[in-house]
User: What shape does this take?
Amino acid sequence: MRLALVITTHERPEALAAVLDSVGRQRVAPGEIVIADDGSGAATQQLIADFVSRSTVPVRVVSQPHEGFRAARLRNLGIGATSSDYLVFVDGDMLLHPLFIADHQRLARPGFYTQDVRVHTDAPLTRKLIAKPAALPSFWSAGLGGLRRLYLLHSPWLASTSRTLANGVVAIKSCNLAAWRDDLVRVNGFNEAFVGWGPEDKELCARLENAGVRRQTLLFGGIACHLHHAPVSRAALPANLALLAETQREQRMRCDLGLDGHFPN
Assistant: This one.
């Protein structure tokens, strides 16, 4: 199995630098890295160029002009940039545990997509992690989001034995999500009708499940810390929730505005 790590980013070079540092510290490297940039400026572009020049792993870079929140389109560009078998999606503000890739690779199962979890860090802890990304927090660290500090516990055995136990209580989030490329192509990728924040990730997974792909949840592994940022606008949420409801009601497997608009099969 060849695994690609797909990282999306927009105009936050200090966070991206910390994330890329954590990627470089993986004990099992991904087979490929795709950086999908949403129209960031010179600082981010230089950071990416420097990372590409020193990476021992092949890196592909894709970009789009920044025209509002278009995460679905950006992730589709990332999917199209790789032929790897299995894709792990993270946002450019997700600091990765050194065994992050190894955990995702170990849990990958045919016929399943994988939802993972994240640990929220407050603003003071985020500043510390950006300054020293190798110093990942522990369960006892200050600045973690309540009970979610439990997500810092690592156990490959528990991760394997609890694959479906949390499916009903852990929300779908594409900031730490993995799926087989063939399954993503089958449902035409992310739905680009979603413009503005949320819930394009839940709609994708609804179509995967309508197509017979089952869900598993990675607990006790795939650990990532979500670096604090100001909340984004929810203005588009009502319209986007209506799109999700339509997919669920009609049990759709494919979207109309998806991967095939960029990469015809």
